[in-house]
Amino acid sequence: MRWEEVGKRYGLRGGWVLRDVDAECRAGEVVAVVGRNGSGKSTLLRLAAGLTRPSRGTVTGRPRVVGYVPDRFPPAGRMSATAYLTHLGRVRGLGTARSAARAGELLDRLALSGGREAPLATLSKGNAQKVAVAQALLVPPGLFVLDEPWSGLDASAHEVLAELLAEVAAGGGTVLFTDHRESLARTHATRSLHVADGRVTPQGESGTRDLVDVVLAWRGSGPRPPAALPGVRAEPGPDGQLALRVPRQDTDALLLAALREGWSVARVTEAAR
Ligand code: ADP
């Protein structure tokens, strides 16, 4: 996905929040958007998700399915987490049974407490945040956008969220998240975009010094499918082995996705610098 010469201001008299943004996000990347409060991080995310239009320039190549987790999720009302997620799943084209099953699976993983059948308005901020994450993943997104997703989450949900981000990327999706803490960006992202004074600057590959080479061998019985995995360096040679290079923090999610696809792991080594 690409931002080309993108500028954004709110209203004709508003000042430019973002100007001349030229940036790109590729499939399989987890990109952190960092910058001070009010610098325009949420605006950049809303442009990515297609929730707001650029005042100038274009955003192209947006994947068809976008999952969006807003910074404040206001699920007021009497609907329960189960009813709400099942309803949204149906809106997104899942049947009722699949929708309810997917909702249950996500709430299990995120360990929602406070009651799946309780009115959403009674949930704590952390549990409401879990519902916000779940609604964005009912259908696997090609673009997963999260605005300050770690705020308010308990420690175990932190880990699950990190796994979920890595899984979307390992499945060939793009993840874009904000946080004002650089440490979280370093831990969970493969790359950062820094927003300041209306400008967006790539911070370079945070993982270039910490890459892992993975070699996979096809063990499936049928013909080998095209690999929907990130970091493919070359298509398989005559030995049928596939070579990939990924940031260390994505290795677990990549291996998990590869095993599920029917690959077996032939080799995992430090990438030569
Ligand atoms: P961040 O996410 O980095 O805190 P935002 O993108 O939310 O930054 O906001 C950037 C600037 O744009 C701020 O000055 C904010 O007041 C302004 N802004 C954001 N959303 C709107 C809006 N809907 N209408 C008018 N101004 C807005």
UniProtKB/TrEMBL annotation:
PROSITE patterns found in the cross-reference section: ABC_TRANSPORTER_1, ABC_TRANSPORTER_2
Pfam families: ABC_tran
Gene3D superfamilies assigned: P-loop containing nucleotide triphosphate hydrolases
UniProt xrefs under CDD domains: ABC_cobalt_CbiO_domain1 (cd03225)
InterPro entries xref list: AAA+_ATPase, ABC_transporter-like_ATP-bd, ABC_transporter-like_CS, ABC_Transporter_VariousFunc, ABC_transpr_CbiO/EcfA_su, P-loop_NTPase
Annotated keywords: ATP-binding, Nucleotide-binding, Transport
GO terms of molecular function: ATP binding; ATP hydrolysis activity; transmembrane transporter activity
UniProt keyword annotation of Nucleus present: no
GO CC term, one of those recorded: membrane
Protein name in UniProt: ABC transporter ATP-binding protein
